[in-house]
Structures are given as structure tokens and as C-alpha cells.
Amino acid sequence: MSTTGHIEPNLTGPLSIDSNTMDMTTTWTLPPDHPVFAGHFPGHPIIPGALLLDQAVYLACEQLDLPAASLKIGNAKFLHPAGPGEVLQFAFNRKANGSILFTIHSGSTQVATGVLAALTP
């Protein structure tokens, strides 16, 4: 885990960016032996929602070359739990107003959706 709280990405696939639409996708996997699973939840581990959101912000900043911690969660909806070792696909769509729509999938299952917005001073 980094000093800012996010877990350094374990990207398992290539980054893909469509320069016409500013769509970006990348994959990430949280190893099954990661300590977060010991307490969330014993016997039925799932990736904490806060960690999924943190990774969405981190990956968007990293891959879109934005300053660290320049985004906030505008809104988010969790649709399905994700477990240890699942390959998660993060997709981002940058809008003209500066917001970034995101979705997280595990295979064909949608795990979460939301909007990232720029922090205002």
C-alpha cells in the first residue's frame, strides 16, 4: 500500500485509449493473499468498495496524466461484489465538461459505475 492509501496497481492487461472518444480501459487484479481480505469478510472475502473507488481515482489520474489527487468521487453505485484474484476491467470516458464516467467489470458482470469530478480549490 502506498503512503496515500491506494494499493499500487497490479495491472494485468494493456492500457487501451481511443483518442477520438477519450475512452480508456485497463485491468487490475488484487491478489488473493492481500491482507484486506482477512477482515473483509472472513470466509466470504470481497474487495472493499472504498478500495475500488480509490483505484478508479488512482488509475484515472495515472493513465490520463492528471495530477495526483486531482479528482473526487461525484457519485458511485456498487452493483455486484468482486472477490480475490478477479481480473477487473476499469473503463473511463472523459467528458467535455471535465468529468470522467467510469465502469468496473469482472468479465461480463458490472461491478460498479460512477462519475469522477475535478476537485475545486
Write structural notes for this entry:
The protein is an alpha+beta fold. The protein has one domain (16-118): Thiol Ester Dehydrase, Chain A. Helices cover 16% and strands 36% of the residues. It has 2 helices and 6 strands; from the N terminus they run ββααββββ. The protein has helices at residues 36-39, 49-63, and strands at 16-18, 23-29, 71-78, 87-94, 100-106, 109-118. A 6-stranded antiparallel beta sheet has the order 1-2-4-5-6-3, covered by helices on one side. Residues 1-5 have low confidence and may be disordered.
Structure, briefly:
The protein is of the alpha+beta class.
Keywords:
121 residues, alpha+beta, Thiol Ester Dehydrase, Chain A, six-stranded antiparallel beta sheet, 2 helices, 16% helix, 36% strand, disordered N terminus
Helix segment count? 2
Give the SSE order as H and E letters: EEHHEEEE
Relative strand content: 35-45%
In the CATH hierarchy, the third-tier topology is known as Thiol Ester Dehydrase, Chain A
What does the average pLDDT come to?
85
State the helicity in percent bands: 10-25%
Strand order of the largest sheet: 1-2-4-5-6-3
| Radius of gyration based on Cα positions | 14 Å
The CATH superfamily bears the name Hotdog Thioesterase
| Head-to-tail CA distance between termini | 27 Å
Q: How would a textbook summarize the main sheet?
A: 6 strands, antiparallel
**Apparent shape:** globular
| Poorly predicted regions | 1-5
User: How many domains?
Assistant: 1
Q: Count the beta strands.
A: 6
Classification by helices and strands? alpha+beta
